[in-house]
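User: Sequence in, structure out. Go.
Assistant: Echoing your sequence, followed by the structure tokens.
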Amino acid sequence: MAVGIGVFLPVAETARRINQIAELKEVPAWIDDYVLGAILVGGGYSILQRKAANHGYLIAAWGIGVGALFLSFLGQFEYFVTEEGDPGIFSTTLVAVVKGLILAVMLTGLNWSIRAVKQ
């Protein structure tokens, strides 16, 4: 699940902001999804090595992801009060719903990872 979300995030953000990809001043707005994707892929890959100590990496990756997506999800609501809306090519509402769904998946992944360590 972490690897899937880790690959999905940068692809989705690239699609969303394809109209801004060439603008260097906009890089900080989307580069975080690439970093977060790499963290999640790394955490998911660490579990495949089947070492008990690696569960901490996956839990940390999910925790970072939940924190980042929570802030991004809340920040998305600022676009509802601006005239231009979301800066990407999709509607502000669609982006808010997708971010909420991704946040729910990440919370589920974090919960499952913590429970797996307790067993």
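User: And one key feature?
Assistant: The mean pLDDT is 90.
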